Amino acid sequence: MAISIIAAIGKNNELGKNNDLIWHFKEDMKFFRETTTGNTVLMGRKTFESLPHALPNRRNVVVTKDKSYIAEGAEVFHSVEEALKSTENDNVFVIGGGMIYNELLPFCDKLYLTEIDDECPDADVYFPKFNKSEYSAEKLTDYTVNGVRFSHIIYSK
Description:
The protein is of the alpha/beta class. It has helices at residues 26-36, 45-50, 80-86, 98-104; strands spanning 2-9, 14-17, 20-21, 40-44, 59-63, 75-77, 91-96, 110-116, 125-126, 136-145, 148-156.
């Protein structure tokens, strides 16, 4: 099994606000879709609920402690361990939220990060800090949209 993280983060590791992404760039959404299609996406309940529906052409896996939770179009597990056991033959992309990223970061081989040269002082969810010196970085693209610069970077252990 290969476990990777995919996330868009601001200058201070900001991820989200009010159960939504802070930044919405069509180039980043395209990168996310192309990178995760055909693979398994693993997420927490709040991340799943922030989506309009289960993500098409991907195996959707949701982790929640709520034993009665039903996620239409997704498989529900009640611990990260259960979810990982069920995906042991898959290429897994962890797509959020903050608690799931924090729990799975030590197990990830690659981080597909959109690094955004902007900040959001009232963000309420953050990506966990990690030691970039433990990874090799490959910058894929640079963009500037509405005056905001961002890059797609793959960090590999």
